[in-house]
Give the backbone structure.
Amino acid sequence: MRRASEERQSLLGEGPRLALILVPALGIALASSLALPRAFNFLGRFRGIGFALGIELAALGLVFWASATWNLVSAYRSNRLTTRGAYGLCRNPIFSWWIFSVIPALALYLDSWLLLLVSPLIWAVAKPAGRREEIGLGERFGSDFWKYKARVRAFLPLPRFRPFTVKRYAKAAGGLALIGAFAIAALVFIVAPLAVDLGASAAERKGAMPGDEIIGLPWGGYTQAIAIDAPAEEVWKWLVQVGYRRAGWYNIDAINRLAAKDYFIDGGGSSQRIVPELQGLREGDRIDLVPSLGFTVAKLERPTLLVMGGDLESPTNPNNAAWTFMIVPTGERSCRLISRFRMTVPSGTVAKFAGDLVGVVGGAIIQQPAMFAGIRVRAEKARY
C-alpha cells in the first residue's frame, strides 16, 4: 500500500504540493471574475478577438496536455526518461500548460485581467518545484537527463535555436503547418459556433426579431448582445448616427480606413460626439458600410429599434442581408443592446467559406463586439 502511494506521488511530482497554493488562488480569481464580470475587463474593443483566441488557446493546450500526459505515463511505466512530444518543447509541460494555456485561455474567455495574474504566480511557485524534481531526475537518469536539460527550455514551450539542417527545419515547418490546420479546424468547428452568440442569452438567440422576415430560411449569421449602464435614449443617439461618411462604427477604425481615406466625418476615427445633423434618420435612408455598398433603413422606432436591409426590393437576392438593432430597457438608467445579422446561405463551398469569413470572422468576432464596446464606452461616459 505504501509503495503504491510512493509511486503515485513520484508520478505526480510536485503537483499535489503546488495544488495547495494554486487551487485557492485560481478559485478566488475565477469566483471574483464571475461575480464582478465588468470589474476586471481589459479587452475593450478586442473582446471578440480575445474570446476567439481564448478558445483556440484552450484547444491547442488540450493537445499539448494530452501529449505530455501520454509520454509521461508511458515513460514512467517503462522506467525511462521522456523527451518526446510536449517534453521535446519544454521540461515541465504540465506546468507550462497551466501557465501558457489554461489560465490565459480562461482570462481571454472571461475577459478578466485578474485571472491573468495567476499565470506569473504559477511560474514563480513552479520554478523551485521544478528544480526539486530535476534533482531527482538527474540522480535517476544521469548524463541523459543533463544533456536533455541543456537543449530544452524549462517552461517556455519553444525549441532552442539549433544549427540549421534541412531535416530539422522541414520537421519544424511540418509542425507549424499541422498547428495551423488544427487552429483553422478549431475556428470553424468550435470558435465560430460560440462566438456568433457572444453576450446573448438563450432567449435572445432563439426569439424572433424584427427584420427576420427580410431573410427567409435557411439563413446564416449571428445574434449578440451587451449590457449598458445608460438609458436607452442615450444609446440610441450613438446608434442612429453610424455608417460610412457618418459617425463611423465605433469599432476598429483602422479596418474601416482601408475602405476609404475619408471614411469618417470627424478626422481619422469614429465620432466621440453626438452629431446633431445625423440624429434625424428615417425609414428609407441609406447607411453605407463602404462606398457604394450598404443598407437601407427598413424600420425605425425611436429609441428602441433600427432594422436595415441589404436589398429590400428583392428578398430572394442571394446577396441579401438584414441587420437589426434592438435596445431593451432594463431599468431607468440601463439597457441591453441586441443585434442580429441575418444573411442568405450562399450556394457552393467557396461562396459559403467567403460568407463565413466576412460574416463570422469579420463581423461576429472582430467588428460587432468592438462596435458594442465602443457604444457602451461612449454612452456610459455621457451618463456622468
Notes: Residues 349-383 form the longest helix (35 residues).
